[in-house]
Amino acid sequence: MPFITWTGGWRYSITLILAAIIGVQARGQSGTDFIGTGGRHVIQGRIVFPSGRRSDARLRVRLESNSNLSGDLSVLADMNGSFKFQGLRPGTYTVIVEGGESYETVRERIFIEPEETGPVRGTTPPRYYTVQIYLQPKGERRGEGKPEVVNSSLAGVPKLAADYYRKASELARQGATNEAIENLRQALLIYPDFTLAWGDLGVQYLKLKQFDKAAKALEAGLKLDPDDFGMLLTYGLVLLEKGEYGASADKLRRAIKVRNSSPLGHYYLGLVLIRQRKFDEAEDELRLASDLSGNKMASAHYYLGGIYWQRRDYRRAIDELESYLRLEPNAPNAERVRSTIKELREKQK
User: Fold this and answer.
1) Architecture label for domain 14-157
2) 206 vs 155: which has the higher pLDDT
3) Burial 146-155 (b: 16+ CB within 10 A, else e)
């Protein structure tokens, strides 16, 4: 009996999958901190600016932690306002965006839950926590006028629609999915060309496993922006959940074409290819996902081990599973993987 059940063992919690993709609705490459605090989780986000003018500077984002003895982490957001901190342990963190002379400084608190200890089929991937930071110009309340600022994802959106969208984002962060959907629908009634809202609506329907509604929302958003990486990735996962593997692979390949440097895009395409039993192609995608993640994506090694087990290449299967355990020594399935390694060593004799 293989340690991977190809017909079902690949699946992760839908909540964890969504946590990993919500943040990629922002376009462009993120300013990323690779040091972390010795863990495996990710805090990522996007800074939303109050006007549609292009930025002449990248803003600094700091991450405070009550458990980081080496001091605060810091990164410059990219020109689209995206940022990422990875390699984080569970604990309480504060994201701080330093507004400089033009904007108020913003602080957002995030709690990374402790590791799951109960039995879970398969392996648990890193958890992704996403936050949107809305900047407010200094002096705006005093009527001093707005400074020249950067490209805004809400530029041109009517104020009431933007307010509904912000409310939906907050509700989604609180886990109030149905209420978030209602606010997104209200935003879209006011402004049907609201690409961000269509993408987020698709994510919220995916949370509820309402795959047909998710697909319709994502189709509407992609008509407005056919190259939106986040929506393409989300749509690929919707189709994967529906069992439409060919269509899923097509959407994920389009996502990768937009952002070839995304570990997630290659990783999920690898899982789809496993479902299609295209193991050679799956191996390439999972290997690339691992490389792009800085060899920190433990679950890629897990499934590579399964591919090599399938080929009876036991030495390479052992190598991949040992890499998995080095990255995830306390994974819920760690003992089962250790037993598999022991069995594979016996087969080598």
Assistant:
1) Sandwich (2.60)
2) 206
3) ebebbbbbbe
